[in-house]
Each structure stands twice: as structure tokens, then as C-alpha cells.
Amino acid sequence: MKRKSNKKFNKRPQNPLSKLSLFQKSDSRFSKKCPLSGKDAPIVDYKNIKLLKRYISDTDKIMPSRITSVSQNKQRKLTSEIKKAKILGLI
Amino acid sequence: MSFYEHTLIAKQDTSTPELKKIEKKYEDIITNTEGEIIKIEKWGLLNFSKKIKAYNKGFYIHYKFKAESKTLEEIKKNSIIDNSLLRHLTVKYKKLDIETEYFTEKDSNEKKK
Fewest C-beta in 10 Å: which of A3, A66, A71, B55? Predict the structure, then answer.
């Protein structure tokens, strides 16, 4: 048996706009600065519950930094402060 | 000498004179072991997010003080034995910020109005 040639696939026209598909991340939308570092950043503390609740899911899990775009240094601090607040039953 | 913060959670059943006794007890422990109290905050009755030993609410007392390691041992010994306390937590700080209060008594004032 002879294999059918792949002409079918070659014939598909390549649009220049195909790169702008929905599944490709555009750089402008996803490059976001860390909301917890900088000059006017809020203090990360176990007493500051309003701030900590923003970084917790509905089932009380800590949100990953790739979603919240928190920097590595602050994410480490966030986890430790959230755990302290959980000991005291605040969150 | 370094700075510490200590928070206690007392049971919901404890009466107000008993609460004052607890507050004074730990105040004395800190001062008797060469520590300095900077500030005491009473956060009042707060709701827990989950039940702790079948309790839904608790009285919070918050100390800010300057002390050495031996006072921390004393506090730990006493708070583990204490039957009227549910939980406790100590945190070490390089700098204490005394001004900001996250648990002000706004909620209690609003209820009164």
C-alpha cells in the first residue's frame, strides 16, 4: 500500500494572523508588577487580615504566585504570615 | 534583649473579672523576669473561622514587650497549663510598630449605635 501524500496538509494556507490565537499569551497582558513590593506597598503581617484574605482561595488554600504575580521574596513571607493567622483562628 | 509580640485566646465562657486576672497574670510574668511591657491591646470577642475545641468565639489579648528568652519560657509553661486559654502565639520582631492597630473597637461601637 502506498501512503497518501501529505498534500492535504501542505495546502493549508498559513495566515499571518494565526500567531495571535487565543491560546498564546500576549506579553502586555501578563507582565504585571508585584503588588506587595514597592514604595506604597501594604505591610504583610498576620494581623492584617484584609490583605491576607485576598491571597487565599475559597477553600482556604494559598494562591500560587503565577496567578497573583507576587514576587518570590514576598510570597515566602505571605505563606508564613498566613500560617500564623491560621493558628490564631483569624482566617 | 529583643522585641516580641504575644497573643492569647481565652475561652468564651470566662467572665470579665477572670479576664482581668489573666491579663494581669501574664503582665506580672513579663515584668518579674526583667521584661518591659510596651503596649497591651484588647481585641475583644472575635469569631473563629473554624471551631477550636468546640468553641466558636474567643477573647483576644495582645502584648507587645521587650524581653529575653527566659521570659518566653515562663510564658509558654504557664499558658500550656492554663485551662482558660485556647491558644497562644509569640512572634519575634526586629522593629515593633506601635501605631497601627488592625483590630480597633469599631465593630463594638457600631453595634452599640
Answer: A3
- Show the cell assigned to B69: 528568652
- Please tell me whether the overall predicted TM-score, pTM, comes out greater than 0.80 for this model: no
Torsion region of A89: left, alpha or beta (phi above 0 gives left; psi -120 to 50 gives alpha): left
Contact B49 A90 (CB under 8 A): yes
Chain A interface, best mutation among B43, B91, B102, B106, by max A CB count within 10 A:
B102
Burial (Cβ within 10 Å: 0-12, 13-18, ≥19) of residue A6: exposed
pLDDT in tens, A42-80: 889 998 898 999 999 999 899 999 888 899 999 999 999
ipTM of the complex model: 0.83
C-alpha to C-alpha distance for B13 and B112, rounded to whole angstroms = 22
Q: How far is Cα of residue A47 from the mean position of the Cα atoms in its chain? A: 25
Q: Which residue of A has its CA nearest to B58?
A: A89
Please report which helix (H) or strand (E) contains residue B10, including its range. Answer: strand B2-10
Residue B9: partners with Cβ closer than 8 Å, 6 or more residues away: A88, A89, B52, B58, B59, B60, B85, B86, B87, B88
What is the per-residue pLDDT across B40-53, written as a single tens digit (0 to 9) for each? 999 889 999 999 99
d(CA B55, CA B57) in angstroms, rounded, equals: 6
